């Protein structure tokens, strides 16, 4: 049995490896879209790449850029414009909450210029992702605070702070100066204690009405509730999927009964209520609060 370990054997081992290299798996590990040089550096041969394109497993979206058929459109847009994904377009890739999906890609573009249909963000202050074409998490948050409507920006940042990715002061240090006033105002809406995106929206909505709002309040024999308004109105917001089982409905009834027994009033709203029917929500809240002397 040959034990040759010289240059010829090493070349043969390299060739054998590239023969079994899975181009789809390799591209998937790079975010489903990559440049030719990146794929070649990781051991893929041009012949294997061309064969995968021929079979339709991989698509050549432009010269020097290859993608899987299901590649994230924002990643494709980034590589075809020599850019990086950020803001709302990068939120999902970092596992952040997002109130609305972006209608256009948010990118940082070379030379400060992007196509008119793209949302361009200029500044980058932290290292970018080493594997995917996205900016660093802190820059995603900073760009969101500058770009998105205040409540939507607060939703993105709230999820990151709640998870412990960073702290408010770290972001605030990067938002000094007159040009950052809008971003600082959006950051003021963030508390870091909400358990869902819709809680952030509801908290801002209630506080803007001038009500005294307590969040994440623990009540004996009831547990934690989302909000207590004016000291006696408990408001909870959630999606229907969290309370669709018989066990969940029974638990809700027990909680509601205990709240009434303790002197609280109670309202529950779903995602659609808080997102699309805010006037109706506030009218119901006003109606309930008007039945008692408000603090």
TrEMBL record:
It comes from the Bacteria. Keywords: Endonuclease, Hydrolase, Nuclease. This is Very-short-patch-repair endonuclease. InterPro entries: AbiEi_N (IPR025159), Restrct_endonuc-II-like (IPR011335), Restrct_endonuc-II-like_dom (IPR049468). GO terms for molecular function: endonuclease activity. Pfam families: AbiEi_4 (PF13338), MTES_1575 (PF18741). Residues 206-287 form the Restriction endonuclease type II-like domain. Residues 24-69 form the AbiEi antitoxin N-terminal domain.
């Amino acid at each position: 049995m040959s034990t040759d370990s010289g240059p010829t054997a090493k070349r043969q081992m390299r060739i054998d490896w590239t023969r079994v290299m899975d181009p789809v798996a390799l591209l998937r590990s790079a975010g489903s879209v990559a440049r030719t040089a990146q794929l070649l550096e990781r051991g893929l041969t041009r012949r294997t790449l061309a064969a995968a394109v021929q079979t339709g497993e991989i698509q050549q979206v432009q010269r020097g850029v290859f993608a899987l058929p299901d590649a994230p459109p924002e990643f494709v847009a980034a590589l075809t414009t020599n850019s990086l994904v950020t803001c709302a377009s990068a939120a999902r890739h970092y596992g952040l909450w997002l109130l609305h999906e972006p209608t256009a890609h948010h990118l940082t573009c070379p030379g400060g210029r992007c196509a008119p249909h793209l949302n361009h963000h200029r500044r980058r202050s932290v290292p970018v992702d080493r594997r995917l074409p996205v900016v660093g998490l802190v820059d995603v948050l900073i760009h969101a605070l500058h770009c998105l409507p205040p409540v939507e920006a607060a939703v993105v940042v709230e999820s990151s702070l709640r998870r412990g990715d960073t702290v408010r002061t770290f972001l605030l240090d990067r938002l000094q100066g007159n040009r950052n006033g809008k971003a600082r105002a959006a950051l003021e809406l963030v508390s870091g204690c909400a358990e869902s995106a819709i809680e952030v929206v509801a908290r801002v909505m209630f506080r803007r009405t001038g009500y005294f709002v307590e969040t994440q309040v623990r009540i004996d024999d009831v547990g934690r509730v989302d909000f207590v308004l004016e000291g006696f109105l408990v408001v909870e917001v959630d999606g229907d999927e969290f309370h669709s089982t018989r066990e969940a409905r029974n638990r809700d009834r027990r909680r509601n009964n205990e709240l009434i027994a303790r002197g609280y009033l109670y309202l529950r709203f779903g995602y659609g209520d808080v997102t699309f029917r805010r006037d109706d929500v506030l009218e119901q809240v006003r109606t309930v609060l008007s039945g008692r002397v408000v603090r």
